[in-house]
Amino acid sequence: xxxxxxxxxxxxxxxxxxxxxxxxxxxxxxxxxxxxxxxxxxxxxxxxxxxxxxxxxxxxxxxxxxxxxxxxxxxxxxxxxxxxxxxxxxxxxxxxxxxxxxxxxxxxxxxxxxxxxxxxxxxxxxxxxxxxxxxxxxxxxxxxxxxxxxxxxxxxxxxxxxxxxxxxxxxxxxxxxxxxxxxxxxxxxxxxxxxxxxxxxxxxxxxxxxxxxxxxxxxxxxxxxxxxxxxxxxxxxxxxxxxxxxxxxxxxxxxxxxxxxxxxxxxxxxxxx
Length: 273
Prior knowledge:
The protein has 273 residues and is α/β, with parallel strands linked by helices. It is 43% helix and 15% strand.
């Protein structure tokens, strides 16, 4: 993706602090470990890339809001979001590990943890682990309505997290189904989510609007890698006025109901505004 790079811990911290000066109040961290295994062991490593980046960012700017992705896909050798039995994800075993990953992020100083795995019951398990660990103040941003989308392609290449076989239809949602999204949001709020997220953003503005209208809770939307890359590619060919389409799409996401937008355009948008 143009303008998007894997960064070392010190580079990521410098970028986050600079972005905050531009007007971006927070970041969402993803980690790519040095090695991967079948169970994503390094996801909960206190010295892992995300945990180390949290500490470095907070040491440079304590007011920077640091959110962390909680999933195993970047840490598993097979690229799936959970622990496998054969070719099937084992939900409850995965959830137990995700809770430990969230706990390690909280211990490092994260303000919010953001489970993106779409396993059943993970919000409740994470909330319980955080509270029992003394991290009642750490919030949960739940990827509550995460669709099985082709728009994730560029990110999966960048994060080296593409599934080695099959796909993620068993736990991510059918793009044609909006009622399931509303049920998932309701469940996650009941389990203790502080913020719920719709992902992707632009192709699912109708879902975003319905989630905000029905529940009235803090709602985020993720403008994903494919959305960003399409605009960048068209702009590079001279087909679109990039600054205008950037702000137009972000405005559409906000207008549809997003209180918070996760986007690769964050620094460019903040500078433009």
